[in-house]
Amino acid sequence: MKVSTFKMDSKIISVFILISVIVTLSYAGEEEIKTIGDFLKKFGNINMEEVLQNDRLFQAYHKCFLEQGPCTPEAREMRNVIPSLVKTACDACTPEQKKEMKKHLDYARHNRAKEWEELLDKYDPKREILEKFLSSVPDK
């Protein structure tokens, strides 16, 4: 009777160790985004024009950002940083990054008005921060 208990305990321990190793390995290669600077370093090379102009890609990101659909790991990380970007009006951004962001936000505001309003409802319901940001960044 004691031998079977030992076998059962060792199987449970083995499964626990295996799960621990898998979880550890799955997180080992990921860079955790803790600051807006980390976000900008990791995602600064995403072709946002392609996302904005491709309806399928745009809708996938949009649904993720509104928590209405699945997210790629990258989109989920972006969604997690959006509140900080909005709250700080991207204070950590360089002037060039702000200009680039303004260009994309203006495109979304003029060409994706319905989706723009939905994002504002979620992230800037009083319509104060993003408008202030957009008006503070020169066009050129």
From TrEMBL:
Top-rank taxon of the source lineage equals: Eukaryota
SUPFAM superfamilies recorded? Chemosensory protein Csp2
Q: Which residues form a coiled coil?
A: none
Show the Pfam families listed in the entry.
OS-D (PF03392)
What's the protein called, per UniProt?
A: Chemosensory protein
Q: Which organism is it from?
A: Phenacoccus solenopsis
Quote the gene name from the UniProt entry: CSP12
